[in-house]
């Protein structure tokens, strides 16, 4: 009986599959829930949560990626408002940077084959092209009788995907966002359609990102 020994060679290769979606998640600063309050410790407007995708780029995964993302996060987390807003009891709530940021990279896109530099580039992508409102999180506030928007997700999901309303809201009540620095609020209509028509990425960029980081909008 012949025994055939097959040696498996690790081959570095890259291939892209059909691109279906890519998304940027933001937490809005405020007082309506714990994450909003923790974001407000760092910014009067917003905190970047993550960028995610299902686009696969096969390559050899290196342990050095962990060291590299730590270094890149340290250099960029303040510029990006990429702060650690996890609750104090969380395993990653020990510091502002960079354990939380490194975990986001390793958990979301590392296994898909992305380099740390690519991840930072995508987090820094403020171009409006193809970014639509995919979902919002909101909660009804009984004091002001409005649904307060707490988080937004913009991305390139297929147009056939339904709009997601991840929230504890009251039907018929309007929607509102309230930057901490401002003495005014942004009012939206009571329907999902009205929210989607007004809360575009261009609008969010002008009223949130540019107010906190004008350098991103030159």
H/E element sequence? EHEHHHEEEEEHH
Quaternary structure of the protein:
single chain
The average pLDDT score comes to 83
Q: How many whole angstroms does the radius of gyration measure?
A: 20 Å
**Strand content range:** 15-25%
Secondary structure class reads alpha/beta
Distance between the termini: 72 Å
Give the count of structural domains.
2
The number of E-state strands comes to 7
Helix fraction? 25-40%
Overall shape: globular
Number of helical regions: 6
| Residue runs with pLDDT of under 50 for 5 or more positions | 1-17
Biggest sheet architecture: 7 strands, mixed
Compose a concise summary of this entry.
It contains six helices and seven strands, in the order E-H-E-H-H-H-E-E-E-E-E-H-H.
Describe this structure in words.
With 218 residues, the chain is α/β, with parallel strands linked by helices. It has two domains: 22-123, no CATH class; 132-213, no CATH class. Helices cover 28% and strands 21% of the residues. It has helices spanning 34-39, 64-80, 99-108, 116-123, 192-198, 201-212, and strands at 22-28, 46-53, 132-141, 146-155, 164-168, 175-177, 186-188. Strands 1, 2, 3, 4, 5, 6 and 7 form a seven-stranded mixed sheet that branches. A hairpin with an 8-residue loop joins strand 6 (175-177) and strand 7 (186-188). It starts with 21 loop residues before the first strand and ends in a 6-residue tail after the last helix.
